């Protein structure tokens, strides 16, 4: 034995670090996006939360800006925030305790060094949609899959990764969105802007699911959604050619051409293939450009 002992801390233990101070730019960004989420009607009381990771030379995983207990994202201001470390959740700057959900956010940041923002919300429509018997949120627009980049991961109501973070390591590398039945959702992003816009596109897709199911129940038609296989194919083509903003037109032309060539290999395009091409064109148009625009 060399006499060395490992240091441990308790969650929310006050351990002020003089080298950790609030960055006005980060606090402004936090408050701005928190209020934007509230302005969209996505915040319920003080539940839910958001964290932003900032790199720090004295902390391997960086440090984490968070709101404390008892304050909603709708009401939070710069002076309310606290900064914690990521492995333990100890308070490095500020004084108020964080919520139980903060340990989930910290575990995600610890396991995903590419992620710098986590947003967790108790979204009314999502909870209601899943409680009504729907098991998955289907993709009716290509925007959802493009922005999420990875499939959503679904957790049953019996699994609460806010209270027990152990299951997170089994799936977090393969998703940027956790759908928590009867609870809410958690969205990941490389920046607060990306996490916010992924949250917005998820909320829009949930709304589309409800509208489509309602209309199809009334008209007796079958919903037309983009399958995981179709989305994977389009993403593969996109990744092959790149997606710089100035290349969107050329990229979408290549995608449409590649699918058309595949469908016409037998010198015949059947009605189902025509339907798929029409749907593809609509998706590409929604993303910025499609043949014929």
The CATH architecture category of the largest domain equals 3-Layer(aba) Sandwich
Helix fraction bin:
25-40%
Order of strands, main sheet, comes to 4-3-2-1-5-8-7-6
Order of helices and strands: HEEEEHEHHEEEHHHH
Q: Total number of helical segments?
A: 8
Task: Give the radius of gyration.
Answer: 22 Å
Give the CA-CA distance, first to last residue. 73 Å
Report low-confidence residues grouped into runs of 5 or more: none
Strand content: 5-15%
CATH level 1 class label of the largest domain? Alpha Beta
Please state the structural category.
alpha+beta
Q: Tell me about the biggest sheet?
A: 8 strands, mixed
Number of strands: 8
Mean pLDDT: 87
List keywords for this structure.
8-stranded mixed sheet, 2 domains, 293 residues, elongated, 8 helices, alpha+beta, 14% strand, L-fuculose-1-phosphate Aldolase, single chain
Explain what you see.
With about 290 residues, the chain is α+β, with helices and mostly antiparallel strands. It has 2 domains: about 25-220, 3-Layer(aba) Sandwich (L-fuculose-1-phosphate Aldolase); about 230-285. It has helices at about 25-40, 100-110, 125-130, 140-150, 190-220, 230-240, 250-265, 270-285, and strands at about 50-55, 60-65, 80-85, 90-95, 115-120, 155, 175-180, 185-190. The chain has an 8-stranded mixed beta sheet with strand order 4-3-2-1-5-8-7-6, with helices on both faces. Helix 6 packs across helix 7 (about 250-265) and helix 7 (about 250-265) runs antiparallel to helix 8 (about 270-285). The radius of gyration is 22 Å and the shape is elongated. It starts with about 25 loop residues before the first helix and ends in a 7-residue tail after the last helix. The model has no long low-confidence stretch (mean pLDDT about 85).
């Amino acid at each position: 034995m060399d006499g060395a002992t490992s240091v441990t801390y308790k969650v929310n233990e006050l351990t002020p670090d003089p080298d950790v101070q609030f960055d006005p730019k980060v606090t402004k960004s936090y408050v701005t996006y928190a209020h934007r989420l509230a302005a969209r009607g996505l915040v319920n009381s003080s539940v839910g939360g958001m964290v932003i990771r900032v790199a720090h030379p004295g902390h391997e995983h960086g440090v984490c800006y968070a709101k404390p207990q008892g304050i909603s994202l709708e009401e939070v201001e710069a002076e309310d925030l606290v900064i914690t470390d990521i492995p333990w959740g100890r308070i490095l700057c500020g004084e108020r305790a964080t919520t139980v959900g903060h340990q989930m956010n910290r575990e995600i940041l610890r396991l995903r060094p590419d992620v710098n923002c986590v947003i967790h919300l108790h979204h009314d429509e999502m909870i209601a949609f899943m409680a009504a018997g729907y098991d998955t949120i289907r993709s009716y627009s290509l925007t959802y899959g493009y922005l999420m980049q990875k499939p959503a991961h679904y957790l049953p109501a019996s699994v609460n990764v806010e209270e027990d973070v152990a299951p997170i390591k089994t799936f977090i590398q393969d998703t940027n969105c956790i759908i928590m039945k009867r609870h809410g959702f958690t969205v990941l992003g490389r920046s607060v802007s990306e996490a916010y816009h992924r949250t917005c596109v998820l909320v829009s897709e949930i709304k589309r699911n409800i509208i489509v199911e309602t209309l199809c129940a009334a008209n007796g038609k079958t919903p037309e959604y983009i399958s995981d296989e179709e989305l994977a194919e389009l993403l593969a083509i996109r990744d092959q050619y790149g997606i710089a903003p100035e290349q969107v037109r050329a990229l979408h032309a290549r995608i449409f051409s590649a699918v058309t060539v595949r469908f016409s290999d037998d010198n015949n395009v059947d009605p189902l293939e025509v339907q798929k091409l029409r749907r593809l064109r609509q998706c590409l148009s929604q993303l910025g450009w499609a043949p014929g625009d």
